[in-house]
Design brief:
By secondary structure, the chain is mainly α. Helices cover 50% and strands 8% of the residues. Strands 1-2-3 form a three-stranded antiparallel beta sheet, with no helix packed on it.
């Protein structure tokens, strides 16, 4: 007896219901409410994640194309001040970067502050902030 494709698809499909609701506490960080009304605090900050990605991408582009910062800024039509601030994110400690990527960073860690305020270059000092 041969199975038809339709029967194989029926065997592979399984419906799963997961009850949850999304609660927005602030503008950028939605929180998932689980069935037992606990809040999942492990929420990725997309803005921080994108900024880290942009910083790494720009660093790679600068090194690959072997162009200076001024040429890069002209090419991207961005101010040098902004590009330097974003590139500085590459100097964040691996622990802080991992926390951002995992969504476990401190709730007080926001991109605006990282770009505005200088942070220490030593990783140990950064992690004590």
């Amino acid at each position: 007896m041969t199975k038809t494709l339709e029967n194989e698809e029926e065997l592979l499909v399984q419906k799963v219901k997961i009850p949850f609701k999304i609660l927005k506490r602030d503008k950028h960080k939605p929180h998932i409410i689980k069935p037992n009304n606990s809040v999942d605090e492990k929420i990725m900050d997309d803005i921080l994640v994108q900024a880290l990605g942009k910083a790494k991408l720009w660093e790679n582009e600068l090194m690959r194309d072997e162009i200076d910062l001024e040429e890069f800024c002209e090419k991207k039509k961005l101010t040098m001040k902004y590009v330097i601030k974003v590139l500085r994110l590459n100097t964040l400690s691996p622990g802080i970067k991992a926390a951002i990527m995992n969504g476990t960073q401190a709730k007080t860690l926001v991109l605006k502050d990282l770009l505005k305020k200088p942070f220490p270059l030593l990783w140990g000092e950064q992690e004590r902030m």
